[in-house]
Specification:
- The structure is a single chain.
- Strands 1, 2, 5, 6, 7, 8, 9, 10, 11, 13, 14, 15, 16 and 17 form a 14-stranded antiparallel sheet that branches. Strands 3-4 form a two-stranded antiparallel ribbon.
- Helices cover 15% and strands 36% of the residues.
- It is an alpha+beta fold.
């Protein structure tokens, strides 16, 4: 079993090319977890800005915008980088993730900056999470003694969702505030800390909202979808990082996930990540499909024959 640091390790094989390896224990079914893949791409971008683009002095990821073209697979992965725009305040690169014989699977743009030296107008917005989440005494989560939050150890089909087993998830003891909302406190199960490059994974690590409907509101689910494993592949993921996490990382993060519409096998997800001091860390938006797990496990098509569709 690999740690997050081991599984997201990338190395330079050129000034604009990096390599990594996707292990099986970071998969959903047979497909590497989308948030984990996002963190690997973020790690490659961070290495690029700390080496090839070191002179820019922009070490922090500000935004990520990724399109998942095809299913990724376990094994070696290559990240090719193109410098798109290099600026004084922000710089943007294009990253293409390929596997096998050059099969392009994920593409996107990543913008870096130096959050520590940002300057400019700041205004109070009075923003808050609504409805307000249940309060938590975070130190009591460690022993599962928090009176309003409990360890969510019964996540459905956890053996299928191996990447989800990497974290401890705490959910409200009284249940979620709505079937369309998933509130959670999370930490790495092996004691690792969440760092900046963890945020891609964090933005995609949560109890699945469709499963909440399946468990608590079956009347709203067509009968043929009430049982069996489901897969929720990411089509698009974007991430905006608002705050620098300390270099040593943090143990706990709070995540709220909310779906605005679930229709015709497609859903949107809005993700808000907050630290234990209540400060906004990151925002994310997803577009996901809702399909049977057989689509995850199906034999992969020949990319040279039919352009290798995502599913």
């Amino acid at each position: 079993m690999s740690s997050f640091a081991e599984a997201t390790h990338v190395k330079a094989i050129g000034s604009h090319k990096y390599s990594g390896f996707f292990p099986e224990d970071w998969c959903i079914g047979s497909v590497p977890h989308g948030g984990y893949v996002t963190s690997c791409i973020q790690a490659a971008a961070s290495l690029h800005f700390n080496t090839t683009l070191k002179a820019q002095q922009q070490p922090h990821t500000m935004t990520i915008y990724l399109t998942f073209l095809r299913r990724t697979s376990t094994g070696p992965a290559t990240f090719a980088v193109k410098d798109v725009k290099l600026g004084r305040q922000t710089s943007t690169i294009h990253v293409s993730l390929t596997q096998g014989s050059g099969r392009e699977e994920v593409v996107g743009y990543i913008t870096h900056t130096n959050i520590a030296t940002e300057a400019g107008i700041s205004l109070p917005t009075n923003w808050s999470l609504l409805p307000a989440p249940y309060p938590a005494k975070v130190p009591l989560l460690n022993a599962n003694h928090e009176e309003l939050w409990r360890n969510y150890s019964e996540m459905p089909f956890l053996s299928f969702r191996k990447a989800s087993a990497k974290i401890d998830i705490f959910i409200p003891r009284k249940g979620q505030l709505d079937h369309s909302i998933a509130d959670e406190w999370i930490r790495f199960r092996n004691g690792e800390q969440f760092t900046m490059n963890s945020l891609g994974y964090v933005a995609d690590a949560f109890p699945q909202i469709v499963e909440s409907f399946r468990e608590h509101a079956q009347d709203s689910i067509p009968w043929q979808h009430r049982k069996g494993k489901m897969w929720y592949p990411t089509v698009l993921l974007n991430l905006e990082i608002k705050k620098i996490l300390p270099p040593e990382g943090v143990e706990w993060l709070f995540v709220r996930v909310r779906a605005k519409q679930i229709r015709n096998g497609r859903m949107d997800l809005e993700v808000v990540i907050v630290d234990d001091g209540g400060e906004l860390v990151a925002l994310s938006q997803h577009v996901c499909l809702i399909v049977g797990a057989d689509r995850n496990l199906a034999e992969r098509r020949d990319v040279n024959r039919d352009n290798g569709t995502k599913l």
